[in-house]
């Protein structure tokens, strides 16, 4: 491991857990200190004799898909529903059976902790979520939790004792599909959202988040905060939800961060005019102005290796014989670098103002949502990279940023974090056809 | 009048009415043959001593606006409603009082005929419509009918006897706002739509056109056909509904035809993709493809002095975080020349296919509606031009095509037709703020 890696973003607990020498192998030794089998490095730990049981993991995915089975290959398991309650019970029972102690915090986050040699250290966590989108698949989120459970089973079977405790975490309401605030459980834990604010969020039927937690018996006692319930590190295994790995024929993705992303809505104000009687040079055509802006925004985003998407586009009065007087559209802008994304937002507004003026219109702007980008912890990335190289070789993995929000974004502010991706068939997610192969698992 | 004018589109009746010599002055003499005042040409007839009463016309506009008054300056008088019945009664009474005989045909078209010296000739008509859009103004259509009534009053007061009979026509359901088929009454009269088909058209409440005619007592006995109830000519005074005359500071528009127009719907088929995880070069972005097409279609239309308008634009799934998988939009294409419009439709489809391919999408097309362009009768245009020049001088009028459909399009296939425009304030129509000045009247 190169010596330029710095620990300045690491919590003191993690620094202790990974040793004061700051070298990956030492850290891996510390974590995977084995009494039963004598493994002294991650490299050895990843050797053929101790590895996850692919078939068992595959079976457990399909076993748990019964709770919320949408009978089209997918899963509909909205957070804190009866189906979520059932998979949560299974989670607790399964991990208790392999020597874990399960804690539930005040927002339903579940921490299944396997003791380590040094119980003064906070646990090193493998976390993700068991809730899904309304028409979701059986992999998004679930893979990260069930992958963690499989690791626990292997540790248990091989009588491995780690230096720090190890935990599997099931974060509540990552999808934000029932309570419309994504990554809600990890956001409260990370201090991004106040607990009372989270409690008051209602689903479409008016049930509050707090009432829903209480109803299924998951309003826990553990403080929902990184301060009172810290983690030494957080690793998240997840499907890519994009086509890059599949396209490049890679088996693993080493995730180096999450892109900065956000939405700007642009309203173009023109005049509704009769299309047959208003000459072309006498128009204030809001739609024409908008359609001139959008390809330019796209080109600008490509220039800086960023991403732009116009997903919503509404036109008024929406009559085939009338020049549209008003158009409103969304622009999603993403970049791995926060400053570059800020610049993209600025350029987008300049482009819109320019074309609006050319077409005799005005453009107004609303920045409705933004999520700052995150660079994951260099030491965690390096560790994942080393193991990936061992498992699939130098050409078998790709280092890439995540393009979607994950609980790891929230943990990354409070403990060293990184993620691991496996390929998504056709890049599809949030859909019953979402799929990943057993081999990649 | 130049000798190249031909009569091949004129009915035999009109040829008789305008004399066999085919010169405008002679025709005007024929029409306006005056017994009481001795006028021998339209030029003389337009002299200061016999002219319309501007104030009376102005007053009658505001008087009739009581039937459907929308209390915001506009009129809501959908066809065959109680308000329409009231204005129709007023029309019949007013014209009967000045010596006309009122006929109602099988689709409610009203023909108020003032006898001429030669009753073997079909009447020369001034026609338009008394129905309005749901949020319409007090000028569109109404001006043409009330202008005709004012002419009848002047002829009556001055005891003028014309060679051919003169008629004022109120065409039924021009707007197509209640029964969704515009210019319906004149279309049945012109043989463009079968009467039974017209009768079966329903409004949103399921009332048929036939039942609505019967309810207000306007299912007449006169055959609704140019064959049994012919006109020798049709002139229509109308507001411009556009800004050209106002912009150029003209008082009158001599309308030389109606543009060819029609709608093509384009559907762009791409793939819905997660915007954060799908790289820019891996997308099949239907919306980006569409927004690249639209400015190109616009440029192409301008190149050939035509018009293009995208009025409807729908995108799916319409989520700010999802690359749109499907976009459907309308393109209205207009040109004074039918062949050039056909070419515009062809080029539009080529442009769309090209950009769809570039963005990894497919484009499909539906031509949902088209109306062939019409060149009005040269003799009628010439007559209107001569009178316009007399009234407002060489710089006071502009010759231009109409950009919207009118009953005159239908009459033009069966009798010599032309239209006269007056300026619309701000080019606005189909809106309560629609306005034209008393001076222009």
UniProtKB/TrEMBL annotation, chains A, B:
Keyword Nuclease: no
KW Transcription (keyword) present: no
GO MF terms held by the record: hydrolase activity, acting on carbon-nitrogen (but not peptide) bonds, in linear amidines
SUPFAM superfamilies linked to this entry: Bacterial exopeptidase dimerisation domain (SSF55031), Zn-dependent exopeptidases (SSF53187)
Gene3D superfamilies reported for this sequence: 3.30.70.360, Zn peptidases
InterPro entries: Amidase_Cbmase (IPR010158), Bact_exopeptidase_dim_dom (IPR036264), Peptidase_M20 (IPR002933)
Domain of life: Eukaryota
Keywords, ordered alphabetically: Hydrolase
Pfam families in alphabetical order: Peptidase_M20
Family in the record: Belongs to the peptidase M20A family.
The protein's name: Peptidase M20 dimerisation domain-containing protein
């Amino acid at each position: 491991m190169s010596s330029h890696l710095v620990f300045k973003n690491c919590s003191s607990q993690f620094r202790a857990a990974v040793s004061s020498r700051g070298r990956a192998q030492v850290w891996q030794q510390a974590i995977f200190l084995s009494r039963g089998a004598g493994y002294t490095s991650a490299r050895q730990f990843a050797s053929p004799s101790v590895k996850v049981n692919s078939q068992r993991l595959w079976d457990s995915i399909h076993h748990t898909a019964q709770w919320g089975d949408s009978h089209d290959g997918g899963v509909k398991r909205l957070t804190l529903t009866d189906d979520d309650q059932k998979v949560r019970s299974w989670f607790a029972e399964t991990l208790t059976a392999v020597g874990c102690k399960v804690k539930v915090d005040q927002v339903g986050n579940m921490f299944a902790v396997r003791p380590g040699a040094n119980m003064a250290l906070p646990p090193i966590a493998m976390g993700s979520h068991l809730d899904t989108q309304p028409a979701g698949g059986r992999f998004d989120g679930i893979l990260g939790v069930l992958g963690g459970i499989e690791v626990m089973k292997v540790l248990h079977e091989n009588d491995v004792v780690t230096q720090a405790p190890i935990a599997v975490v099931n974060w509540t309401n990552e999808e934000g599909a029932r309570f419309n605030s994504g990554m809600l459980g990890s956001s409260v834990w990370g201090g991004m959202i106040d607990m009372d604010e989270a409690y008051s969020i209602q689903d479409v039927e008016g049930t509050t988040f707090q009432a829903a937690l209480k109803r299924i018996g998951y309003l826990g006692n553990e403080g929902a905060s990184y301060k009172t319930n810290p983690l030494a590190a957080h690793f998240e295994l997840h499907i890519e939800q994009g086509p890059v790995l599949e396209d490049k024929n890679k088996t693993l993705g080493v995730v180096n961060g999450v892109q900065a992303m956000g939405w700007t809505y642009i309203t173009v104000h023109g005049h509704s005019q009769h299309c047959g009687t208003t000459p072309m040079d006498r128009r204030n055509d809001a739609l024409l102005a908008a359609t001139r802006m959008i390809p330019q925004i796209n080109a600008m985003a490509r220039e800086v290796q960023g991403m732009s998407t116009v997903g919503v586009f509404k036109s008024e009065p929406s009559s085939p014989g009338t020049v549209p007087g008003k158009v409103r559209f969304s622009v999603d802008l993403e970049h791995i670098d926060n400053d570059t994304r800020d610049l993209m937002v600025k350029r987008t507004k300049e482009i819109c103002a320019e074309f609006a003026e050319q077409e005799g219109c005005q453009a107004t702007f609303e920045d409705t949502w933004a999520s700052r980008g995150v660079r994951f912890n260099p030491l965690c990335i390096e560790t994942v990279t080393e193991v990936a190289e061992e498992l699939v070789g130098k050409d078998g993995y790709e280092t890439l940023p995540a393009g979607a929000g994950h609980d790891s974004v929230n943990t990354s502010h409070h403990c060293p974090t990184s993620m691991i991706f496996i390929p998504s068939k056709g890049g599809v997610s949030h859909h019953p056809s979402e799929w990943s192969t057993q081999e990649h698992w």
